[in-house]
Amino acid sequence: MYRAPVLFRQLEPRTARTTADVIKFALWPFAIMTVLNRVFIKAINGFITDDYKPVYNASFEFLNGRPVYTANFDSVDPHYLYPPSGTLVIAPVAIIEYELSRWLFIALNAAAILLAWYLLLRLFKFGLGSIAAPALLLAMFASETVINTLVFTNVNGCLLLAELLFIHLLLARRDLWAGAVLGLSIAVKPTLAPLLLVAAVRGQWKVFITACGVPLALTAIAWPLSKDPEKFFTEVLPYLSETRDYFNSSVGGNGLYYGVPHWLILIAQVVMAGVVAVSLWLLWRYYRHDDLFFVTTFSGVLLTASFLLPSLGQMYYSMMLFPFLMSVVLRNSVLRNWPAWLAIFGFMTYDKWLSDRWQSTGRALEYLRVTFGWGLLLIVVFCVLGDRYLAARRAGRLQFGLDPAWMANAPDSRDGAEDPDKPVAAAPAAAHRDDPVAPEEPAGEREPALK
Question: Would I find DNA repair among this entry's keywords (predicted)?
Fold first, then answer.
């Protein structure tokens, strides 16, 4: 009797026997079709905002030995803001004509996001056969941050992959490689630079050798090849240090847009910086030996603060928070409450809140939801950790950590997660996949639902 290859047998229609199978069968088509729509329809269609055009033009000028930093910063159009090291790395995109180059860059970012998705699953010990796989894929490609990264065609997908590689290598104590990956990302765009603090508080100082060495080496190579590299430091950096009142969801950006007094903006920034500092200290003091929880939560708080408090924070930066959001599957996660997910809704959803009927209200909801989302997330982390600290101090058990006793038996969504390296027992011979009264599969073949 002919049997189809294993790959095709996985695609054969089957009747689900467990709740987990039902959910997986429902989610996979939605996830795959959403990915295809985002990459081949929305991204190829593009939008009025085009982050790729200035990158392509600058790369073309660099390859032809002409000045790169020629943007008019008085306009609100996207500008070329990469340092000379980033110009060197990204210059090959201009070897071919613009439209094909843009399509290939979309494909590169889509592939980077898919690889980051797989690494994120493996980071939390989930396999492709788990419910988490289609659920996470669907959530990522339904988010504003992934959609606009592809549609605007910027480099954030590659930065997310760099972040996941860095975390994996950091946890594996492969410090020089972790630093090299982080350094390469910093050479292009310094979004992930705050993660150096994660390595520092863990005492992994070798990370700094390559994290600093790679961008310095690339800058040294790019400098004599560039026509005007000094303008990045004399013109671009001053522009980046200014707080602009458009396309800016930071506290300063929205405060400037709504005419909030500078002293009040400063107070808000100082208060939120205090909230962040206390949260980071509690994480370091009581959780630094819980590697996965500590690295994902500490880095998430740090990156969120770096979006909210400095001069510029844009909504699609939130892509770098995926490892933090995925930590919800851990039993001691600080995200297992509804205010955290109300905050995440604010900066992850692709929904638009502009209203034709209530224009001022809709505009405020649309422009402020990201700022409030980032801020609320930081407050939630502060409150959860603070509550655990006060409860532990009252009970006299601070020396044992902050987690209450009941948390040791709390459900961890990774319990029973698929391990692709574990042999799977064969189903009983009498069982048939479409037989409603057949014996259930052995426990090794079943996936638990996410709790």
Answer: no
Q: What's this model's pTM, rounded to 2 decimal places?
A: 0.88
**Largest separation between any pair of C-alpha atoms in the chain:** 79
Distances (CA, A) of 428 to 42, 294, 387, 438, 440: 46, 43, 50, 9, 9
Domain assignment present for residue 95? The answer is: no
- Res. 14 pLDDT band, cuts 50 70 90: confident
Q: How many domains does the chain have?
A: 1
Lowest mean pLDDT among 6-20, 147-161, 291-305, 333-347: 6-20
State which residues form the domain around 341.
Answer: 244-418
CA-only gyration radius of the chain, Å: 24
Burial string for 150-163 (b: 16+ CB within 10 Å, else e) reads bbbbbbbbbbbbbb
Residue pair 189/82 in contact (Cβ under 8 Å)? The answer is: yes
DSSP designation for 41: I
Distance of CA 180 to the CA centre of its chain: 19
Residue 132 in 3-state DSSP? helix
DSSP 131: T
C-alpha 367/C-alpha 362 separation (Å) is 9
Q: Specify if 376 maps to a domain.
A: yes
pLDDT over 70, % of the chain: 88
Q: Is residue 262 part of a domain?
A: yes
The closest of 264, 283, 327, 273 to 305, measured between CA atoms, is 273
Distance CA 311, CA 395 (A): 42
